[in-house]
Every structure is written in structure tokens, then in C-alpha cells.
Input
Amino acid sequence: MRPLTCLLLMLLLGGCSTLDLDRDYDPNRDFATYHSWSWRTPRLVYQPADPRLQSDLTEARISQAIANQLEQRGLRLVPAQQADLLAQSVLIVDERLDQVTTHYGGAWSGYWGATWLARPSAKHAGWTTR
Output
């Protein structure tokens, strides 16, 4: 019974993940000509430029992930003046409001003609971040 519960919990939590990753590059560019790279300043650009979004931990994680991927592809990190490629990442935070209205209940007649009202309509607004 326990493995079934764990499986159901994993499926429910897996349905909640909404990671939307967009990559933009020129398909006509020959990336085999690049052998070295460096960071363009600033390394990470936040859009919108809200100071509440900026985090040293986020910047370190994204920078490390980019460096690891470029090293796996054979590019080596060099000073900016000697680099074939300058890298910079842009973190875009898009906030949207999903509003769901649920109407449940209503009125019905009782046993001797008395009218009872069920629970009123409820509105639910939830924020999602992409």
C-alpha cells in the first residue's frame, strides 16, 4: 500500500511542475568555430529589473550551469579580450493571474416548502509564475 501512495504522490507533484525553458540561437551559425569563451558583464540580466528578484545564489547557480555546459562542449574559459564567444544569460520572470470562478450550491425546496440556500458562490484567484 505504501508504494502505491508514494506513486500517487509523485504523480500529483509531477503535475504541478511547469518549467518553461526557452532557448534562442542562430541555426545558421557554425558553433564548431568557437574554442574559448568568457562572461559578458553583467553575467545575469533580470527582466524585470526588480531588486526583489535578484539573488546571489540564483546567479551563482545559473553561471555554474552555463560554465559546465560550455566546458562539456570543449570550450575553455579565458579572459574577455581573448574569447571567441561572450556569454550572458537573461532571467525573465513573467507573472500571470489565473482566475477560476466556481459556482456551487443554489436553492432548493425543503420538505414543507421551505427554501434553503446552499453555500454562496466562491471566487478563487491564484498567481502562477513562469
User: Anything to note?
Assistant: The chain has two domains: 23-95, 97-129. The chain is about 25% helix and 35% strand.
